Every structure is written in structure tokens, then in C-alpha cells.
Amino acid sequence: MNESLSYFMMAWWDPYLVFLTAAGTFAGIYVGVIPGLSVTMAVSILISFTFSWDVNEALAVMAGVYVGGVYGGSRTAIMINIPGAPAAIAAGFDGYPLAKLGLAGMAIGVSTTVSFFGAIFGIIILACAAPLVSEMALLFAPRDYLLLSLLGILLIGALSGESLAKGVFAGVLGVLIGTVGLDPISAQPRLTFGSMSLMGGIHYVTAMIGFFGVSEALVQTLDLKKKIIKQKVDRILPSWEVILKHLPLSLRCSAIGAVIGALPGTGGDIAALLAYGHAARSVKNPSRPFGQGAVEGIIAPESACNAAVGGAYIPMLTLGIPGDAVTAVLIGAMYIHGLKPGPMLMIETPHLFWFTVGNLVMASIFMLIFGLTGIRAFAKMVEMPPALLMPIIVILSVVGTYSIQNSVTDVYWMLAFGVFGYFLKTYGFQIGPIILGVILGPIMDINFRRAIISAHDSLGEFGLELLVNPISLILTLSTMMLLLSQTPAWKRRMARRRTTPPPGGSG
After folding, report:
1. What percent of the chain has pLDDT over 90?
2. 51 falls in which pLDDT band (50, 70, 90)?
3. Please, which residues bridge with residue 189 across strands?
4. Are 410 and 401 in contact (CB under 8 A)?
5. Is the per-residue pLDDT at 43 higher than 80?
6. Is the CB of residue 263 less than 8 Å from the CB of residue 140?
7. In this structure, what is the dihedral angle of CA atoms 153, 158, 162, 167, given to the nearest 10 degrees?
8. What is the mean pLDDT of residues 383-412?
9. What is the pTM of this model?
10. How many CB atoms are closer than 10 A to CB 182?
11. pLDDT one-digit tens code per residue, 379-388
12. Distance CA 99, CA 82 (A)
């Protein structure tokens, strides 16, 4: 125990390591803020600068960028409805309506506080339950990842508007966009229409910037004379009453995030979505209706996606399997420094595990400090006149899109998605399911193929496995219950139950 504690404190005793962690966290926050600059890209670039460093120094700065970047994406999602990262999409569902009510400071304060809480929760899970959670993650078969992705799209479709049909249509549209390019197994072109530029597919960040950024700019330009809403930033930290009231929700969603983060190949975006769906269904009396500025709609996804950071480290350190794209890059960095992540890591280099835990805790503390500073300056973004702000958003969207792959074609696609997204918003379609479909489409595609192959190309055997395997059965029943809960008959029944007084009660 004393040895583990000394390894844990290694990240705190060295002033240079503290500085590197702080610098990485600060940089990660502002990388996460800018659409088009991903945390994965930032960590990848860092490898080329840090390969000659001491291993602790390299891992310290990368962990800081990771923790800060996951949190940073929610700031622009709340302020101007442009998520800096896919994991921040859900935070904008209620964060942006709060900003339009003049409560952007409060929204970011809540977001920062619960992000810190979720990050610490995920790290505790990493420290205490790494082997157990890793074993559970290994039980997930390709069919389970397929069901998990399908459940995510149905959840967002059901929660992002009045019409499930419109939400599902938007999700399917996103899946089609996400599957453009070469087939991952046969390498045959799909939906490319003979275009060489589409062979590599359409990058999800290109779609995200177009559908969120440019479409929002087009919507705002129709009302350039609307009254500017002054933001209230007199109180940034939420009161203890608010924290304690929503502590059970934050705990539940942090647990969701840690478990989902530990599933290889998932990450904070799916965790945030499932947590948002859980909150929308479990919170009986939200502060406002979900989608119109509910504080619970910020607490749930932000707790989950930050807890997923600690969860994603679990399979990386104990199994050598990346939990998400960033940990996939981190595995490469560890190999460069002569480390072998996997079952023998905690036996051969136990100091590395506990150093990583201590380093993540420190990065989370710096995230809280840096996250609560500069909010007043950020709030000025919402108070800028649309005639000035919208051109800036379009310019940043173009620059961010071009920086992904240095491709002008990506810029054309981004602008086209922006115009298309504008018309979709005009007719009441939600953008969130489209982007989730773009992200989850390739995951659903490859895991469906793998599931069919494992079932010996038999749909009958595939269907039987859905009913025999406990995890598959739970996910299948959850999907069916979600669909059932959206039928008109079920909604009428639930409405009657809410309006019918209990037996023996006063009428």
C-alpha cells in the first residue's frame, strides 16, 4: 500500500511534471474548444515531440491534453451550439438553450464542476476495479457493439424531438454518410458514385462542423436584428444545494461513463449519449423540460464523458486494447518508450499504473481550475452581434475543416452539409442523430459483418445468439422496450397513468 502511494505521488513531487500536466491540460481545453482540432490529433502530434523525453514526462503531458480536451469541447457546444468534439454534442442539447436564456456562465460552471466529479469517479474506477471491468469488457461480442450502437441512435432519435420517425430518419441518414467510401472487408467502393475523392469516405468532423456550425450560422443570419441576450456570470460555481440535489444523477451517469469507456472502441460520445437518455427517462421533475435548458441535461452527459476517460485507460493498461481513439495513440506512445501495455504491465512496471492514476487526478484538478477561469471572456461570444459572430463562425469552420486532412473537398462537403442542415432544421429535423449516425455507422457496419461471420453466415444463428447470450439479450430487450415506449398507444397509456389519481387519494 505504501509503495502504491509513493508511485501515486510521483506525479505530485516533481515540479516539472506538475508544470507539464498543467500545460497539457490548458492546451487540451483550448484544442477541444476549436471544432476540427481533435484530442486524438493533438496527442498524435505530441508523440513526435516527446519520443526522446523521459516516459513519465511524455505520459504526463499527454494525459493532460486528453483530460482537458474531453472537457473543452462542451464550451462551444454551450456557447454557440458548435461542439468542439463528438462527446460534447449532448451537452449542447440543453446547454445552448441555457445560453440563449442568458445563463451561459451558470451552464459552464455546472459543466466544469460535474466534469471534474465525473473524471475523478472514472479514475477511482480505474484504480479500484481495473481487472474486473476489463474482464467484463472482454465479454462483449461484435453483436453487442452492434446493439449498443443501434440503441444509441434510437435513444437520440427518441429524445431529440417530438417525432421518433424524424429522429430515426436523421440517424439513418447519418449512417449512410458514415458508410461512404471503401468497404472495410471487401474494399469495394460504396456510395461513391465513381468519385475518387469519396473513396476515403467523409470525415465525421467535416459533417459535424457543417451540420452544426454552418447551419447554425445560416439560421442566425435570418434574424440579425434580434435582441442580444446579456449573460449572467455573477455566479459561476453552482451552489452546494444544486450539487447535492443532483449528486445521485451524477453518480449514476459517471458509472455509465466509466463502464462504456472501458468497452474497447466506444468512448465518451456514446457514454454521453446513453447518460443523457438515462437522465431524460429517470428524472421526473427536471428544472426545465429536456431540450429547453434542463440543468440535468448538462450534468448527465458531462459526468459520463469525463468518467469515460478513466474507463478508457482500463483496457489500455490491463489488456493492451485501446478504449477509444486517444488511448489507441497512447498505446503507440507507450511502445515507443519501451513499455508493453497489457496483462503484465502491472506486474513488471506497477509504478507506471499508479503514476498514471496520480497524473490523471492532477490533470482533473487543473481542468477544474482552468475550466472556471475565462468564463466571462467566453460569455462575450454569445453577446456578440450575429452580423459579426456568424462570419467568424463560418471562417473558423472553413479553417477547421481544411486542417483535418488539408483537403478543399472537405470544405465543399462541409458547406454542403451546412446548407442541407439549415433546411433540415427548417422542417423540424434534429442534427444530433445525423452526427451520431455518421460516427456510429462504421462501428455498426464492421460489427454486423463480424457478428454474421461468427454466426457462420446464418441469420438464424445470429438471431438465436441475441436471445441466448445474457448481454445480447439485455441489449435486445432494451432496444425493444425503447421502441415500444415510443408508440402512440404506450404514450397514451402513460399519460393516463400520470393524470389518474392514486387509489384512496383525493380527486
Report:
1. 9
2. confident
3. 182
4. yes
5. no
6. yes
7. 20
8. 76
9. 0.69
10. 15
11. 665 556 667 7
12. 13
Report the C-alpha gap between 297 and 345 in whole angstroms: 38
Residue 475 CA from chain centroid, whole number: 20
Domain extents in the chain: 2-454
Q: What is the pLDDT of residue 500?
A: 56
So what's the pLDDT on residue 224? 56
* First-to-final CA distance of the chain: 62
pLDDT class of 255 with cuts at 50, 70, 90:
very high
Which three three-digit cell numbers place residue 93?
Answer: 442539447
Amino acid at 481: M
- Between CA 440 and CA 418 the distance in angstroms is 20
Cβ-based burial of 229 (10 A; exposed 0-12, middle 13-18, buried ≥19): middle
3-state secondary structure of 213: helix
Question: Please, are residues 213 and 82 in contact by the beta-carbon 8 Å criterion?
Answer: yes
User: CA torsion angle for 37, 38, 39, 42 (degrees, to 10)?
Assistant: -50
For 151-206, the DSSP string reads HHHHHHHHHSSS-HHHHHHHHHHHHHHHT-EE-TTT--EES-TT-GGGTT---HHH
Distances (CA, A) of 126 to 94, 231, 282, 452: 29, 38, 26, 33
421 close to 214: Cβ distance less than 8 angstroms: yes
Helix (H) and strand (E) counts in the chain: 25, 2
- Judged on CB neighbours under 10 Å (0-12, 13-18, 19+), 384 is middle
C-alpha cell at 310: 478513466
Q: Give dist(CA 89, CA 85) in Å, integer.
A: 7
